[in-house]
Amino acid sequence: MAEHTVKAFDDDITRLRGLIAEMGGIAELAIAEAMQALLSGDEELGKAVVERDQKLDALESEVDAMAVRTLALRAPMADDLREIIAALKIAGVLERIGDYAKNIAKRVGKIEGRNRFEPLTLLPAMNEVAAEMVHDVLTAFAARDPVLAREVIERDAKVDAFYDSIFRNFVSYMVENPSTISSAAQLLFVARNIERIGDHATNVAEMVHFAALGTYPPDRN
Amino acid sequence: MVIQEKLSTEPKMRTRDVSIFYGDKKAVDSVSIDIPTEFVTAFIGPSGCGKSTFLRALNRMNDTIASARVDGRIELDGEDIYHSSMDVVQLRARVGMVFQKPNPFPKSIFENVAYGPRIHGLAEGRTELQEIVEKSLRRAGLWEEVKDRLEESGTALSGGQQQRLCIARAIAVQPEVILMDEPCSALDPIATAKIEELIDELRGRYAIVIVTHSMQQAARVSQRTAFFHLGRMVEYGHTSDIFTNPTEERTKDYITGRYG
């Protein structure tokens, strides 16, 4: 894209994009590490994920301030305006994704009998799909790529399918092993959190599409 | 590029393939646009793009420039305004103009507004003239500020008040179209806001066309926007679309500050 006549405007937008990328990196790491901590029972790692979430909150505030400042000073139009609005909303969504990862990390110490607990083995694959959605949607944001954004949106169905199958699985497991209900219920929440991460990655993808083309994807629901 | 859109009424003005020359130089190239009463239409574009020249052609203000020549057709209510049977004085009463710099006559506030209706024979007697003056000043949002000093000179008012006086003066002759050529560029933000508020109130009653260099102003006051570049109308559409998602690359570069 051509440069603005006012160079400082380009600097503002570059900085805003940088902040979003930084938030995305932290959110991705949080998703991966929360699952790792959950699987291995590493409470220290879980705690680290929870603590790092503050950084995401701080970055979100920074994006808010930066976006408001840019809106006020530059009165952006057209794709500039869309990009800044998208950045503002994406920052909010990434912060939420961080919260879900934090929520998963908080449950690390609440799972009993981890080594022979079958439901646990169902989660990593689901988590990976959601994590990849987050990763790819940030790539789409960086590249202003609406095609990749739509691909990410399509993948959400896979996460939802995972969730349904895991839900049924857990319920029958609980019926057969009532003593595990407490732990299994914790894992149901984890699955739910991952499902929400997928939804939020979809929201980001819609904003990337909007920023790039000025329209939402046709199948938005 | 011919613009046609479904309107509830016939457009007040219509131009078809209008080109304007200054000597050999083509300043406006084949512009076709409909100007309806229900919307405010904004013309935007960089300096020298032809938007003001085109605006002035809409009430034959270019007639005073010897080298200027207008090709194509400009209609007011379907009538060719460049036809030899058109009374230019009458035309300029029907299509009023407000300029960049407020230009009140060096006469009283009252006379500034009363002058037009008087020469056009719109008022019978002093009482009726007074009514027209009051109504016009009210409509221009100036009445409360000047009602007790109508005999003071129009030039003694502040810039913003002078501009509203000029709008009252244009309104007083019951125009159908009001052309505004950067009406706020000499005004402070408060006076600008008052003019913008006024434009909003006048919308629907008159077909209004505004030329402005302020993109934000065009976005605020207009419902349709035309972007001019190098004499051509590059894009015309709903103002909200033009400013959030323009179709043409040149429009986008201009409104986002990447032009040139």
Automatic annotation (TrEMBL), chain A:
Protein name: Phosphate-specific transport system accessory protein PhoU
UniProt family annotation: Belongs to the PhoU family.
Organism domain of life: Bacteria
KW Ribosomal protein (keyword) present: no
Protein's cellular compartments: Cytoplasm
Positions in coiled-coil regions: none
Keyword Cytoplasm on entry: yes
Domain PhoU span(s) in chain numbering: 20-108, 125-208
InterPro entries: PhoU (IPR028366), PhoU-like_sf (IPR038078), PhoU_dom (IPR026022)
Protein species of origin: Croceibacterium selenioxidans
Role this protein plays: Plays a role in the regulation of phosphate uptake.
Main location: cytoplasm
Entry-linked Gene3D superfamilies: Phosphate transport system protein phou homolog 2, domain 2 (1.20.58.220)
Gene: phoU
UniProtKB/TrEMBL annotation, chain B:
InterPro entries, per the entry: AAA+_ATPase, ABC_transporter-like_ATP-bd, ABC_transporter-like_CS, P-loop_NTPase, PstB-like
SUPFAM superfamilies per UniProt: P-loop containing nucleoside triphosphate hydrolases (SSF52540)
Keyword Disulfide bond: no
CDD domains per the UniProt record, alphabetical: ABC_PstB_phosphate_transporter
Domain ABC transporter: 13-255
SMART domains named among the record's database cross-references: AAA
Name of the molecule in the record: Phosphate ABC transporter ATP-binding protein
Protein's organism: Croceibacterium selenioxidans
Highest classification ranks of the organism: Bacteria, Pseudomonadati, Pseudomonadota, Alphaproteobacteria, Sphingomonadales
